[in-house]
Amino acid sequence: MFVNKMPRYEILSQDAMDTLDRGWKRIVSELGIEFMKPEAVELFKAHGQRVEGDKVFFDPEFILEQVAKAPSEFDMQARNPENNVHIGGDHMVFSSVYGPPFASRHGVRREATLDDYQNFARLAQSYKVIDSVGGVVAEPNDAPLDSRHLDMLYSTFTLTDKIFQGNVVSGVNARDTLNMADIVFGSRESIEKTPVSIALVNCNSPLRWDDRMLDAQFEYSAANQPVILTPFLLMGAMSPVSIPAALVQQIAESLAGIALSQLINPGCPVVFGSFLSNIDMQSGSPQFGTPESAIGLLCTGQIARHFKLPFRTGGGLNSSQSVDAQAAYESLMTMLPTFLAGTNFVMHSAGWLEGGLVASYEKYIVDVQILEQLQHEFTPLEIDEESLAFGAHEEVGAGGHFLGAMHTMERFRTCFYRPFLSSSDNFERWTRMGAKDTATRAGEIADKTIEEYEAPPMDESIREALAEYVTRRRAELGD
Prior knowledge:
Radius of gyration: 24 Å
Strand content: 5-15%
CATH superfamily: Trimethylamine methyltransferase-like
Number of helices: 17
Structural class: alpha/beta
Largest sheet: 7 strands, mixed
C-alpha cells in the first residue's frame, strides 16, 4: 500500500476552523439529527441526549467525548498477509468504484452482471495500486436480489486475497458478510481482533440516518469492523450551495454517526466519511470533478485531522458519458486533491463513469494509470551526492549529450516512470499500429489482464465451506 510522505495541502485558517466548529455544534444541538432506528434513539437517550421522536438533540461535548474513543489509526488483515493495510496517518488505501448498476465494455453500455463483478475483482487483484476490490463494484442484475450479496462475497473471497467492503443493504446482509468472513479467517475472534471488512454507511442527507444503514452499522460496529460514516452531499440538493455550509453539515452528520458507533462498541474503528460535490444549477444533474468538490476535499482532510480521525473522500469521479478527455480531466481534478489531502481510504479509485452509474472496464485501466503516476509523483525526491551525477558531467563535457553516458546506461530501465497505457510513438508509427486512442488501448489492456489473471490460492476446505454457506443461505432466503 502507498504511504504518502508529502506535505499536506491545508487551506483552512484557525479562524475558519473555529467558525466551522461553532456551526456543526449549532446543527446538532439546535436542529438535531434523525435516526430512523429506535434502538439508536434509545441508546442516545440512555446516555443523556434529548430526544423528540426520531430526532436526537446533542450536547456537542458528548459527541466529542464519544469521537475521542475512536482510534486515529488501525490495521486490517487480508486473506493474503502481504495485502494487509493500515488505515490512518500517512497511509492511503485505494478501492474500486462502488455501486454502479450499469457496466461498459468496448463502448457498449448495459446492465451489469455477476460476470462483470467477477471481472472487476480480477482487475483489482491484478494491479498493485488497488488495495481492495471494494463492495458492489458492479450490481449483478442477473442474480436474485435477496441473495446476490452472497454471490458477490463468494466471488470476492475466491477471486481476490485483498481486503474488502462489507455489504450494507440490510442487517441481514451484514450478518452474512460477517459469517462468511468467519469462515475465511477462522473465527469471529480473529476478525474482531484485526478487522477484515470495511463498510460504507451513508447518511440520508440532510440530517437523517436511515434504518437499513443503521442496521448494518450496528452489526459491523458490534463486531469491531470499521464503518465509513459518510454524509451524501451534493451542494444545492442535499446541502446548501455554499461550501462552508456543506462542510458544517458534513461534520455534524458524520460525527453523530461516529458517536453512535462508539456507544455500540467503545473504541471500535471508524472512518470520517465525505462525499461532497455539487449539482448543475441549470439542469439539476450531479456534477463531479468540479473545483468546488476539490476545495471541499482539501478542507475535509484538514477537518478529519482536527478530530484525530482517519478519513475517506475523493476518487476518480467524473460526469462523462464515455472514456474521453472529460472523464480524464474531471477524474484528475478529484484524484490530485485526494493525494494532496492525504486521504486514508479512497473509494471509487478506478472504474467510475457517468456520475457513478457505470462501471467501465476502459476507465478502470485509465484510473490505474493515473494512480500509478500520482503515487510516483508523491514519492519524496531523494537527493544525495550520487543523484547529482557529477561524474556524468565529467564524462560528457560541454555541448555533448547524455544518451550514451555510463550514468544513463546504468539507470535507463528504471530512471523514469514508464506508463503502460500512454503512447509516445510518432504519428507515422501510431498510424501503422492502428491509430488507437486511449480508450481503445485501455480496453485491450483490460481484456489481456482478465485473460492472464490467475486466482490466488485458497484452501479447498474453506472454499467448500463458503459454497455450502451460500447454498444454504440462498435456500433460506427463498432464492
